[in-house]
Amino acid sequence: MFTPNCLPVLIGSLPLTSHAEAVDLIFTYTPEIPLWPQLPKREKEGMVRQFVSGFPGLIDQGSSCSVDRERDGFITEMTEFYEHLISSQSVEVLPDDSFFALGDDTARGFSVLIERLKSAELRPLTVKGQVTGPVTAGIGIRDHQGVPLVYDDNLRDMLVKLLAGKARWQVEQLREFCTTVAPIIFIDEPGMVNFGSTAFAGISRALVLEGVRELIGSIKGAGGLSGIHICANGDWEPALSSDADIISFDAYSFFDNFVLYREQLVSYLNRGGILAWGIVPTSPPDTVEREQLDTLRGKWYRQLETLCSFGFTEHQILSQTLIAPACGTGSLSPELALKVLSMTRNLADLIREEFSL
């Protein structure tokens, strides 16, 4: 059971190049729920490239990557992938150097976080990891002919299973550092509300749900809590009807649309689902610069009143709430990113003090 009581939580990206500096900031502002940082200013730390090492036929092209299934050895690599996948299903814990491990070449923040956790005097309540969702990753990587992987059944199947394995590996690595709550893994999947749009043409609701369901199953099967982070706007029914334990949404920009799905939202909250309330804006920069703690407080209280009008008590909503930024801060200046972290922490503290949480 997890009763967050409006604790602050962050989304992964920061506009820095030093993982140590990033982890220091994370422990300063969210020591109860630290996470490993993603630093997109580093060449291989984009939200897609970080999680696709080990994919058969993968070719790095600077800051991007593609898959060449016509190159020599592709069939061998694919066979080895499925052999490793099958063998991993018979072990209780994936080894540190598993095929599904996050490596320092693309996710150095993970190992830096682990070292910090090992030396910390106090254990956090829980620890957060993340993985890019299969549709977003499948749109972001193309084969040698320029076709996104999501449109090929075989390549998409391998991608989903690779991402699911990386999510499982994170849970198994992080759980020893958690005190009372299982590790949390967020699936970053804006495509879950955008299927049917031009960018996601030809991608069905069933395809989106199938891929996310497999990742959630892998996280929960390893003993973790699953979250879905969506910083976009669209059809919220699939996310609210999923088995996710936490839904992270952009409450600053899209709250009014989110609550249009009243029936699904009420059902989600009644089953104990948690909202990572992205009330602190992360874009555009001038909005971040303009916002202040008192205006965010007022905005959040009005949103709380709306949810309470659906038949919930304040206590129930507060007990199922995390205070979060709307998205990561990787595209902001370091100064504005620091402001986002500070406002997130301070707003959470203010709410917790006012309601004696």
Structural description of this entry:
The chain is α/β, with parallel strands linked by helices and 357 residues long. The chain contains 14 helices and ten strands. It has a seven-stranded parallel sheet with strand order 1-10-9-8-7-6-4. It is globular, with a radius of gyration of 20 Å. The two termini are 17 Å apart. The model has no long low-confidence stretch (mean pLDDT 94).
Number of helices: 14
Order of helices and strands: EHEEHHEHEHEHHEHEHHEHHHEH
Largest sheet: 7 strands, parallel
Task: Assign an overall shape.
Answer: globular
Radius of gyration over C-alpha positions, nearest whole angstrom: 20 Å
Say how many strands there are.
10
Poorly predicted parts? none
Strand content: 5-15%
Helix content: 40-55%
How far apart, in Å, are the first and last alpha carbons?
17 Å
Structural class: alpha/beta
Q: Please state how the strands of the largest beta sheet are arranged side by side.
A: 1-10-9-8-7-6-4
Average residue pLDDT? 94
Please outline what is shown here.
The protein is 45% helix and 12% strand.
SSE order and pairing:
Layout: E1 7-8, H1 19-29, E2 58-61, E3 64-67, H2 74-88, H3 104-119, E4 128-132, H4 134-140, E5 142-143, H5 153-174, E6 184-188, H6 191-194, H7 205-221, E7 225-230, H8 237-240, E8 246-249, H9 251-258, H10 262-270, E9 274-280, H11 285-290, H12 293-308, H13 314-319, E10 321-325, H14 334-354
Parallel strand pairs: 1-10, 3-5, 4-6, 6-7, 7-8, 8-9, 9-10
Antiparallel strand pairs: 2-3
